Structures are given as C-alpha cells and as structure tokens.
Amino acid sequence: MKNAVIGNNKQKANLIVLGAVPRLLYLLQQETSSTELKTECAVVLGSLAMGTENNVKSLLDCHIIPALLQGLLSPDLKFIEACLRCLRTIFTSPVTPEELLYTDATVIPHLMALLSRSRYTQEYICQIFSHCCKGPDHQTILFNHGAVQNIAHLLTSLSYKVRMQALKCFSVLAFENPQVSMTLVNVLVDGELLPQIFVKMLQRDKPIEMQLTSAKCLTYMCRAGAIRTDDNCIVLKTLPCLVRMCSKERLLEERVEGAETLAYLIEPDVELQRIASITDHLIAMLADYFKYPSSVSAITDIKRLDHDLKHAHELRQAAFKLYASLGANDEDIRKKVSLGEGRPPVLTASRQGVTST
I need a surface site. Which of 64, 144, 243, 344 has the fewest CB within 10 A? Predict the structure, then answer.
C-alpha cells in the first residue's frame, strides 16, 4: 500500500474509497499490533494525507486525529515520529479546524514534553504549533504551557528546518501580543538575548525565508511595545531588510510578504515612515508591483494565468497597504507618492483623466 500511493493521488483516492482508512486506524490502535506495523500504518496514513483536500476530509471523518494523538503516548520514538509527521500534514491542511488541537487539554503539555525527543519531533511539533496558533486564545494556551522556554533553545539547533519552524512559532506567538513580546525581549539563549538572535538571522547571507520571518518577529515585538521604534535593531536592521524584500529580484510571494510586513511596522510611526521612504528608492520600487503580469510574457496555460492573476492582485494589494502606511502622517511623503516617479499607474491614469477634462 505504501509503495502504491507514494506520489499517486489517484491511487490514494482509490484506497480511501475501498475503505483502507478505517482498517489502517484499527491496526494502528490495536494493542496486539507490533510497533513496526503501527509505524507502517501511520506512514501510509501520512501519505494519504499528502494527497488532495478531499483526502484529508476523509481522514478527518474517520477521526484520525484522536487515534494519532493516542499514538504519541507510545514509548517508541519511530512510531511517535510517524504519528507526528502525519499530524503535521493534516494540521497544515486548510480544511483542518485548528481547534482540534486544543480539544483535549492534555495534548499541548504532552507535545511540549516530546520536543526534547529528536530533531524530527522538534520540527513537526513547531510546525503544528505555528499553523494552529490563530488568535490570542491559542497564544495564551501555548504561552501558559511554556512554549517560549521550550522553543527558544531550538533557534540554535544544527538543523535548519528546526530553526526555521521555531522562528515561525515565535512570529505567530508575538503577533499583536504584548505579554508574549515582552517575555521574548528578556529571553536568553546561550548567553544571547532573543532579539539579538533574530537580528543575526536577518543578515543577507541567511536564506530569504529566515530573513523575512526574523523581520516579522522583530516587527511584531516592536508593534506590541516590547522594542522601541528608534531601536537600532528596528531602524538599521529590520526596516532595511523588509525594504530589500520589496525588490523585483525577490520572488512574488516574498515581495508581497515584505511589503505587508513593512506597512505594518511603519504604520503608527512617522519617523519610520520617513526613513522607509528614502531607503533604496522604495517608492519607485513599489511602482513595479503594478507591472505584473507583464503584457509581453507569454502565458501558455490556464493554470499559469490563474497563478499570475492571483499574484498580480496580491502585489497590488500589498503595494497599496504600504503606500497607505508611508503617507499616513507626512504630507511630503504623500506628494512623493502622488507626484513622483514612484506613483502607481492607477494614480497616473486618474491624474491624466482630470487633466484632460
């Protein structure tokens, strides 16, 4: 079964229709099943979950999550890792309600305890937390169960994937949360304060994903009042990093995330708005957000067209958010946007329309 379904969505759907999921879950939960068999069952279920969203819905309908969570009580590490890998795939699906992680009050503390078992448990659990932390209630639950203390040391892990998932956890924990942000400012990891570690992760030689996520952590801590807006880590590190992410050399998704995060960072502070407006020709850079998709680019299939149109909309939306933040308090910046070479084409067109009438 495992070999048949790997990379084959049609075979996955066929197995689900034939009733494989209840049988696999039965074997997974049987005390008489060997640990090896249980592990193989969890691996096959994880592969089925990597198919379509309908596959995940079918697994949820069979109550897979309680069965996998029960499996985490096993003493066998390989089985625990297989269950966590499957849980990670299910919880990161958009069709899975995040609340399913918080239904049983014993689950979060047990997951915290499993963080020390291996780099795989660390990676999968942090990924589950970062996807299932939606709003202040979830932040409070994770915070109260020691998420900050348990995850902080993972930022120095030898595994890039572990460091990255830990970083993503802190970004969702700190978002609009003064309590978490104030705590993060004072956390020490190997003799270094957490903000200093985030700043190191902003450096140009680090992967873009890491730079962006570190910038988000520092941005959220700043907006929550834990870091001053005139702190060097914001003015000289975070802001320039986010401006770099707006460059047309970056991927579309990175440009969108960079512009939206920068807009959020500078929104309430006029001095940050002024600094941003003169950093790396940002206003002129934003005009490029309206030049996608290019009229000269050959679109060969409908999927590519859908992709391009979706990102064109996201780029424009991100650019308008950043324009709004840049010009929120300073008339000179507003004039730069509306009259300068960085004005969006929609403003150019509207001004021409006014002139012609």
Answer: 144
